[in-house]
TrEMBL record:
Gene3D superfamilies listed in its UniProt record: Vaccinia Virus protein VP39
Residues in Methyltransferase type domain copies: 137-236
Domain of life: Eukaryota
Gene Ontology molecular functions: S-adenosylmethionine-dependent methyltransferase activity
Taxonomic lineage from the root: Eukaryota, Viridiplantae, Streptophyta, Embryophyta, Tracheophyta
Alphabetized Pfam families for the sequence: Methyltransf_11
SUPFAM superfamilies in the record: S-adenosyl-L-methionine-dependent methyltransferases
Name assigned to this protein: Methyltransferase-like protein 7A
Amino acid sequence: MILHTIPFSSNIAPRGLITSRSDSSPTRVNSDASTARSLAPDSFCFSGVCSCGRRRFVEAAVATSLFPICPSTSIASKLPSDNYTAMLEKVHPPRPDWYEELYASVLNTSMQSYEDEIAGYKAELFAELKGKAQQVLEIGIGTGPNLRYYAADSGVRVFGVDPNIKMEKYARAAAVAAGLPLSNFEFVQAVGEAIPLDDASVDAVVGTLVLCSVKDVDKTLEEIKRVLRPGGVYLFVEHVAAKDGTILRFIQSVLDPLQQTLADGCHLTRETGRSISKSGFSDVKLSMTSLSSASIINPQLFGIACK
């Protein structure tokens, strides 16, 4: 595995749940009817952050008197299709409809300042996908703020995974606004630890502000590698723990238990960069920055890992 630090200025047969053809929109299939064949382009490896986007942190939670402000993500690979629902319920226990709807609505309206500030970094990262990734999986897609960065690519097909089904209408609206045909977009209710797609079925996996709150970071990274085809890439933006010995790290340590309670399991002190670097990707390029809109959810880690 090569680690770099750099500056930044189809046919998919989901695992018993979804299959897609190049001439039609994705359709649901029974587990015994799924067949796997990926029509991705030739192998590539691209060269070349969370004010807890989905977890707006303590001040946002307190200010709005809400509980979590960020969805979790999924837990086991290579399960029979009927086990995905069980894993979803284990990782993301059912909430009342009103809660899930409120959660999705607040996320849809509370992240604009963060998205505005992170936009330059995201634009450079997503530019690496242009013309190279036809089948894209986004874990923790939420309300779809990233769809505008790659939707303009002709023929791109996107599978958006999120445990909160109430996110779907916002994500679909974001796809329309971005110019992504709805026939090329599929929302899948699932979690990152148990992604319902076949092995080596996508060209790229996108995850922004997700690994802070998954139940099992290493398992999620295993799933990301599993669904990526050889040479495919994982594009990420996450918030990570501040440097040891700093005042910010002390504050994060103190507030971490409260953050997990208020923000659906979001951790302030995870060493996510280290986890990605040690997860077995052949090449990892990452960098860090700090955002004024991220408050204590700094620094922001962003980069690309190649399978």
